Prior knowledge:
Strand content: 15-25%
Largest sheet: 7 strands, mixed
CATH class of the largest domain: Alpha Beta
Amino acid sequence: MDLKRMGNQTVVFANPPVILSSYSVVGPKEGQGPLGKTFSKVWKDQLNGEKSWEFAESKMLREALEGAIAQVNVPSGHIDFMLAGDLLNQMISSNFAARQLALPFIGIYGACSTMALGMALGSMLIDGGFARYVLVGVSSHHDTAERQFRAPTEHGTQRAMSAQWTVTGAGSVLLGQTGVGPRITSATLGRVVDYAESNVNNMGSAMAPAVADTILNHLHDLHRHPADYDLIASGDLGAVGLALAGEVLKQSGRDMGTGFTDCGVMIFDANQDVHAGASGCGCSAVVFAGNIMQRIKAGELKRVLLVGSGALHSSTSALQGESIPGIGHAVVIEA
């Protein structure tokens, strides 16, 4: 059997899956940001009629998944797998959304890298001949994440300047064997990298080495350079992590140029009081499903490298004094 593996960590798809549709749902703060008009749906408040933030997040994810299906003429019964994940314990947002959609379900967890991981795994299923259509979606919610990882927002806890604001948002894509749309041509699955950062208020620094490692391996595996991409967007390093990743890459001989940015920097602006930028599973998901997909369809972007970044810690590991392992997963999307 001919392996589709290239180099250390990259797979190249012989039959690149098509992104048939994308859909994004965000909260009010995200809708007020510079990318507000690129999202499919903006909620008026954080609860949207639900009795808790957790119920609201699962509803938001379900809306994103159903929105992606509704955009194309594909009966839900033809969708072979649904891949979804979130930040909450036991992935309750995804589990309960899957309960409503009643599709064959694979729950995945890569922290904030889950969208890129889902797109990579979904592409493998289609390229490998195991599926015709795969639905991928992820979510995060500012208030559910604060309650689980730090302190409920009602406490009014002072946030560090290096801290990032968890995006309230859900993004989804529907992948198919054939059809019209940009294609996912390759994926680079990352390694867990840990440089002993333990400050949960500085996750950008914890994730930056892993993102740099994935980018370096991706470029090496495919014999490419940063200039070969119109856009290289990391998942949610924020301003602190983006600067650190850029410095690590530069010291490794890769000057990323002006095409290297971060979804956590793009989604909010300076006057929104988010300190170092955005984070959360929903961050890269809604930026990709909205802004980046629109730019690809408009012909502005021909080849994009999306590098999801994840901080693989939990509230328990943080309280036990553990460091924060980082991960980066990358997918190449080509018009």
